[in-house]
Amino acid sequence: MTSCSIIAVIGAPNAGKSTLVNAASGTKVSIVSPKPQTTRFRIRAVVMRPPAQLILTDTPGIFAPRRRLDRAMVAAAWGGATDADMALLVVDAKAGLTEALTAILERVKQLRVPVWLVLNKVDLVDRPALLPLTAALTAEVQFAETFMISATKSDGVDRLLAALAARAPAGPWLFPEDELSDLPNRMLAAEVVREHILRLTHEEVPHHASVETESWTERPDGSARVDCTIYVSRAGQKAIIIGDGGRTVKEIGRRAREELIRLLEKPIHLFLNVKERQGWDEERARIRALGLEES
Ligand SMILES: Nc1nc2c(ncn2[C@@H]2O[C@H](COP(=O)(O)OP(=O)(O)OP(=O)(O)O)[C@@H](O)[C@H]2O)c(=O)[nH]1
Ligand SMILES: [Mg+2]
């Protein structure tokens, strides 16, 4: 008899949620960067542990939102948790009990679904230091289970998946078993471009950049032409993304293209166009284009 569980992966920005989801699925479904607020919308990864199918929902990090975009992101994260059978609260063990995490715990208490605590980045801290942190967290919220993992090293991830599979409620699989994620290729391309913007630019630029795939054309030779637009809020940000003589945007394109070729296993011709669009992060259409609904 098959079983199936929808598991929301929630937590503060930069806790390692997307890294965990990628480690669990054995491929890259969600972009990762050292900067907070990397993930902007929910992405479902399908992880097969027959007879169980685990659907891990990666969500945006939860923080105090200011912009319309931020509010939609945080709403997507909490929405992910309410729609799920259970939730994993991923905590950066190095960062510990931050103010942001304290605020998240307050709302986690009100969730109706079971929540497991996943202490991540244990490779960065001494084991003894984990005990007071675990005690402080479990004093706040009654977690059904606690796991200690290193998502980058894939330490403890298998054990976590085995426990999730054992607990999955009986029922039919919701996705075809060879499906890795629910992310369409157009969104994947835009996300991979954004990942390299996050990696190659700094300060306010990454958070004011958004990427949309304008067109995707399959060619008779089996390759695809992909045109993406990078939206930024100000002329200065556009200049930074373009770089001296177009150096930065070329490098973003080169890295993104290489990665897309690897992920999609076909030749890709990637064209990037940078547009200044003041206030895009307050624009409903741009936010909807990211797959976010407003609450
Ligand atoms: N040392 C170490 N670093 C980790 C681990 N897991 C994630 N990281 C790093 O932490 C940073 C953030 O990882 P992400 O997976 O993007 O974090 P996230 O929680 O998805 O972040 P948002 O999408 O911004 O909410 C990246 O630089 C990761 O490489 C871990 O187990 N150990
Ligand atoms: Mg993420």
Characterization of this structure:
The protein is α/β, with parallel strands linked by helices and 295 residues long. It folds into two domains: 165 residues, Rossmann fold, CATH 3.40.50; 105 residues, GMP Synthetase, Chain A, domain 3. It has nine helices and nine strands. The strands form two sheets. It has a six-stranded mixed beta sheet with strand order 2-3-1-4-5-6, with helices on both faces. Strand 2 and strand 3 form a beta hairpin. The chain is globular and about 55 Å long. The two termini are 37 Å apart. The mean pLDDT is 96. Bound molecules: guanosine-5'-triphosphate and magnesium ion. The site of magnesium ion (MG) has 6 residues, from helix 1.
